[in-house]
């Protein structure tokens, strides 16, 4: 009996409490608190002072000068003023604004029509075609370097062998063995008969091409060495590898415009510009401040390598075997090629790992995943009539701008 009375009393109290809370808060549910006009005015004045405090005085002075000029230019004739006032007051007594006398038509200045921006017309380049396929490596061909005298070039591959080829005939001249893993980088010295090589075996070697022997080893990398670079005038060799080190460099600025990893760089041989490639697009930059010039979009692949010749032809090679040819100045894509794999290879072995032009810029050498080296050259029979530029500036402008 007692338990039932207490239970009923507690239930009643809880119900009454809920009813009071419901009556108190339901009417204001979802409503914003009232705005304090004084606080809002103070907040607005503080924001105005912080954001426009330096120019507020100049704006006030300009408004005062403008009002003074308007008052001086407006003719003050009592007769016209009385007529305007009498015309501005209608019969029902409502006040209408008076805009003042209109300026004479001779003083009105008509705006000149702006000329639409004109995109520069790209330079015509002859199409490129495959002229020779060189076989001899037993693994992926990962790097290539051309001799400064333009007589031979060297390639390194996953078969751990460096091969030297005659550029004119494509015949093998010599094979160099010494690396115990994939050869990833090659450089030919322009001042000495030396060939530098690096590989995934953490070794950097210097080869004397007169005796075809290793004369020097460079130790220090803790992991695979991926690339080499030689200074053009002094005896300085730079190597970079998987351990994240490239010690001989002087950083002027860091360019962070790419959203994905940068896999290739190409310096123009005559202009102070260079290009960088990533899976999203290719970007052009100006040296030495690193100013962005333009995007070269359309190569929808992972760009592994690039090369540019003095004629302004930029070539990009992708992991799917595609090659895009660009006009350097305008960024116009004038040709697309699909590398043909060697008979007996899978289609997945169409990737292009490295490319370079010879010293004349007339031959393009590519090294690919199908274990071959391909040499391309311009089509001598092509002309602007047979291969015209597909120039549609309105479409390109809509796409790029």
TrEMBL record:
Keywords: Repeat, WD repeat
Stored CDD domains: WD40
InterPro entries to which the protein is assigned, alphabetical: Prp46/PLRG1-like, WD40/YVTN_repeat-like_dom_sf, WD40_PAC1, WD40_repeat_dom_sf, WD40_rpt
GO biological process: mRNA splicing, via spliceosome
Record's GO cellular component terms: catalytic step 2 spliceosome; precatalytic spliceosome; Prp19 complex
SMART domains with a match to the protein in the record: WD40
Highest taxon, organism lineage: Eukaryota
UniProt KW Repeat keyword: yes
Keyword Hydrolase among record annotations: no
WD repeats: 134-175, 176-217, 218-250, 296-336
Family to which the UniProt record says this protein belongs: Belongs to the WD repeat PRL1/PRL2 family.
Protein name as it appears in the record: Uncharacterized protein
């Amino acid at each position: 009996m007692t338990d039932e009375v207490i239970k009923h009393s507690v239930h009643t109290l809880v119900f009454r409490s809920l009813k009071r809370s419901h009556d108190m808060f339901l009417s204001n549910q979802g409503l914003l608190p009232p705005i304090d006009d004084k606080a809002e005015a103070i907040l607005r004045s503080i924001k105005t002072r912080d954001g426009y405090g330096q120019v507020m005085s100049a704006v006030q002075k300009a408004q005062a000068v403008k009002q003074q000029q308007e008052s001086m230019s407006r003719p003050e004739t009592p007769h016209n003023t009385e007529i305007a006032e009498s015309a501005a007051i209608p019969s029902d007594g409502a006040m209408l604004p008076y805009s003042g006398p209109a300026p004479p038509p001779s003083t009105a200045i008509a705006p000149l029509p702006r000329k639409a921006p004109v995109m520069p017309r790209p330079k015509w380049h002859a199409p490129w075609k495959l002229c020779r396929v060189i076989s001899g490596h037993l693994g992926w061909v990962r790097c290539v370097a051309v001799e400064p005298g333009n007589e031979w070039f060297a390639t390194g591959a996953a078969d751990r062998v460096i091969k030297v080829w005659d550029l004119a005939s494509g015949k093998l001249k010599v094979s160099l063995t010494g690396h115990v893993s994939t050869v990833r980088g090659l450089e030919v010295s322009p001042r000495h008969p030396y060939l530098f090589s690096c590989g995934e075996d953490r070794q950097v070697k210097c080869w004397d091409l007169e005796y075809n022997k290793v004369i020097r080893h460079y130790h220090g990398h803790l992991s695979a060495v991926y690339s080499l670079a030689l200074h053009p005038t002094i005896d300085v060799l730079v190597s970079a590898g998987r351990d994240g080190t490239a010690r001989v460099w002087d950083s002027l600025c860091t360019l962070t415009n790419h959203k994905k990893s940068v896999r290739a760089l190409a310096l123009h041989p005559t202009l102070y510009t260079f290009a960088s490639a990533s899976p999203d697009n290719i970007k052009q930059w100006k040296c030495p401040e690193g100013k962005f010039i333009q995007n070269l979009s359309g190569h929808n692949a992972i760009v592994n390598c690039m090369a540019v010749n003095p004629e302004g032809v930029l070539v990009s090679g992708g992991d799917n075997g595609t090659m895009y040819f660009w006009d350097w100045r305008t960024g116009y894509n004038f040709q697309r090629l699909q590398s043909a794999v060697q008979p007996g290879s899978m289609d997945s072995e169409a990737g292009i790992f490295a490319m370079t032009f010879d010293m004349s810029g007339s031959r393009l050498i590519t090294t690919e995943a199908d274990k071959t080296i391909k040499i391309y050259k311009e089509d001598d029979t092509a002309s602007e009539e047979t291969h015209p530029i597909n120039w549609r500036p309105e479409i390109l402008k809509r796409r790029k701008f």
